[in-house]
Amino acid sequence: MNNVLAIVGRPNVGKSTFYNRLTESRKAIVDDFSGVTRDRHYGIAEWTDKSFTVIDTGGYVANSEDVFEAAIREQVHIAIEEAGAVVFLVDVTTGITDLDAAIAQILRKSKKPVYVAVNKVDNFQLQSDATEFYGLGLGEIYCISSMSGSGTGELLDEVIKNFDTEAEEENKLPVYAIVGRPNVGKSSMINALIGQERNIVTDIAGTTRDAIRIHYNQFGNEFMLIDTAGLRKKTKVRENIEFYSVMRTIKALEEADVVILMLDAVEGLESQDVNIFSLAEKNKKGIVIVVNKWDLVEKDHKTATEFIDKIKEKLAPFTDVPIVFTSVTEKQRIFKTIEAAAKVYANKTKKIQTSKLNDVLLPLIEKTPPPAIKGKHIKIKYITQINASSPMFAFFCNLPQYIKDPYKRFIENKLRENFDFEGVPVQLFFRQK
Q1: What whole-number distance in Å separates Cα of residue 389 and Cα of residue 301?
Q2: Sheet strands side by side (includes 114-119)
């Protein structure tokens, strides 16, 4: 499954506006993966029965003209390799530029589905002008306006034909993905777990770089491990290593049940780590945080506690997540990571009897009922767990529209206190009864 759509094109053709148009319907994840000098945008979009991830490759350029064009070409190459489909955005008001032609040349050689979207087509005359873009040699063109949304429906109808409705079911084992910024120790962790050195930083010419799945079956644990650690020599990626890392991480997140997010203990929790965490949470994945290179940190009896407090402060409000301190090079607490992931997977797939839910939660709700709104009293009468791949609960009440976020957080906290959903996002739905 590779439900990833990359938006490519030169600067100022409207990529970010188009991206926002696709993702706003889900109030989506407009998060930045902050590198040293550049940001990437990625989000979740939905069209008819398909949900997919959108990558905005905009802004990935430097200042000098030579580096500028080279950087655009490089990110187009990566998008082709990593995405399931590519939208090539061009600007009707400028016609075909040299940079458009250069990008088109790269896209023509790819085997990925490419859709030419001619942007800023706001009137009939411009529709006629758009026919120039057939000259790019990429087949059909789609006239759109990112600003108004016109034409985007027809484009998306075609794009989503490349995407799966839902994940394939052939694998019944838990799937864990080890993700994180480059050089936090993902490769070393995988090598330590499977007990052998694997050449995972290689360059496979001419093939799509899909995340490798490793079947792990040792010491009473059996699961599929997604390796996102390498598969490309860093010299080949150059300054695009961060962007490449983002693409790999998103693909791994799609497939995983539990995301093992590795941090560097020396550098701490950085903005890119927070964004990976947020994406995992919004995709309703189980999460384990692993703080690697703990042996390099000077510490006293308070260091770990203070480190945990800092992490939770940055991750709030979802802080009910296991945190494991490791040193992969010293082989310290490596298997604690797997134990934590197994526990989180069990929490994610846990089903609670309706009678038990009501016996435990209704007295707590009765003791602390929702605040009355405009003199109207809210009564929650019945609770049940919804059959889904992650914990979802329906609360039936007389006035669901009056239940506010603070009370929802109160209910979620009581659920977590009584039934242990550590590491798992919980969804609550309040319905009319």
Answers
A1: 39
A2: 31-34, 39-47, 50-56, 4-8, 85-91, 114-119, 141-143
Q: How far is CA 256 from CA 58, 123, 220, in A?
A: 27, 45, 20
Q: Closest Cα partner for 27 from 39, 12, 43?
A: 43
| CA gap 359, 367 in Å, rounded | 13
Residue 288 zone, left/alpha/beta (φ > 0; ψ -120 to 50; rest): beta
Q: Which two tokens stand for residue 115?
A: 């859709």
- Give the whole-angstrom CA distance, residue 9 versus residue 144: 15
Supply the pLDDT for residue 187: 78
Whether residue 317 is preceded by a cis peptide bond, meaning omega within 30 degrees of 0, is yes
Which residue, chain included where needed, has tokens 């480190």?
Answer: 307
Question: Is residue 99 within 8 Å of residue 10, measured between CB atoms?
Answer: yes
The strand pair at 141-143 and 114-119 is best described as parallel
- Residue 129's identity, in one-letter code, is D
Question: What is the per-residue pLDDT across 45-75, written as a single tens digit (0 to 9) for each?
Answer: 888 888 888 877 754 443 445 555 566 667 6
Nearest to 269 by CA among 181, 330, 179: 181
**Who contacts 360 (Cβ-Cβ below 8 Å, separation ≥6)?**
418, 419
Q: How far apart are CA 160 and CA 157, in angstroms?
A: 6
Please choose, from the candidates 117, 137, 9, the residue with its C-alpha nearest in 3D space to the C-alpha of residue 61.
Answer: 9
143 exposure class (CB count in 10 Å sphere: 0-12, 13-18, 19+): buried
Greater confidence, 248 or 361?
361
d(CA 332, CA 175): 23
Phi, psi angle pair for 33, to nearest 5°: -90, 100
**DSSP-derived secondary structure for 172-219:** -S-EEEEE-STTSSHHHHHHHHHTS----S---TTS--PPEEEEEEET
* Average pLDDT over every residue of 201-223: 58
Half-sphere exposure of 160 (CA within 13 A, CB side): 18
Task: Kindly state the DSSP code that residue 401 receives in the 8-state scheme.
Answer: G
